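User: structure tokens for this one?
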Amino acid sequence: MSSEFKLKSIVRSNIWNLQPYSSARSEFDLYGSGKNNLTLLDANENPKGDLNRYPDPMQSLIKEELAKQKNLPANQIFVGNGSDEAIDLLYRIFCEPGKDRVITCPPTYGMYEVSAAINNIEVVKIDLGKSFELDLDGIMKSAAFTNAKLLWICSPNNPTGNALLKADLKHDWQAQNYTRGGMMDMPFAPEFEAEMLNNQRKLDQLFGAFKGIVVVDEAYHDFTEHISFINRLEDYPNLVVLQTMSKAYGLAGARVGFAFASPEIIELFNRTKPPYNVNELSQRAVLEALLQTEKTENEIKEIVINREFLAAHLNSFDFIKKVYPSEANFLLAQVDQATDVYNYLRDNDVIIRNRSSQIADTLRFTVGTRRECEEVIKTLRTFKKN
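Assistant:
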């Protein structure tokens, strides 16, 4: 990893010098385990009611639990109002409106570009390859690579479902063999060892040469077998990893997401965010969900099984030309008369997503319960091409 990365040089000067708002509840260490029975007369609250108090501005209990589960210090965790808040804050912290630019790799999550437009930031697009692979050479050879402030990589990618960037193939090899009854220290196959070394070389080149922030959005990471990029934060100081409670944890309605990065970058997030950015109800729901690890693991397994079930049945229809491999909780399919199929499903009360505006003739199917998957299949069986 290059030693040339200088955080201060890429942060907006007004943010670097910003004196954040000091709320009543940020002036004292009131939160976290063991902080009870305090007489709170500092924030002009109504003394009665279940939600009469302002929420913990730093989400201390959530960070305590995440720190245990992710095996990193709490000061490397930001908790936001959905991942969308973290995305917006990255623009606010690092990008000067009307001056700076960022790199995206379409087709990908649309909010990277929408947030750029809101913040008046130029977007340079380096398209994925024919198999939706990340074009690392194209990214690094782009003129924008030398001065872009942010590089957005969604992995597994939305809407394609495939992993674009892998943090550590050695870990993937060991985990795969261990789960199949092998030993953790099984020797690598020669061809895999070459792939592993090449992957590491490319990561070092990418992170070492890029002077801005590489953002790896892992919203769908729970549905993969790959190690998280959280495990590479010590190796790459310009890395920010995003995760969310919206997918595997079933809390899309709570609107809570996370950013993981160096303590210095997280401090900038905390300095720039609104004082009470995550409400009390959401904080309670998130903490409860994080503690129910067995329930979450079982639901992830169920979704993965249903994903394979749905993929097999989608492949049986002659008007569905291809179902792309997925490591997420959805499937992307190439479909003849995709818009007609989409409209037919909609008219029969089955709502999916038409992604043809991003990738020609494609539909995206979220993996639901087995009953919901069967309802999709049942409805598709009645579709007749004109």
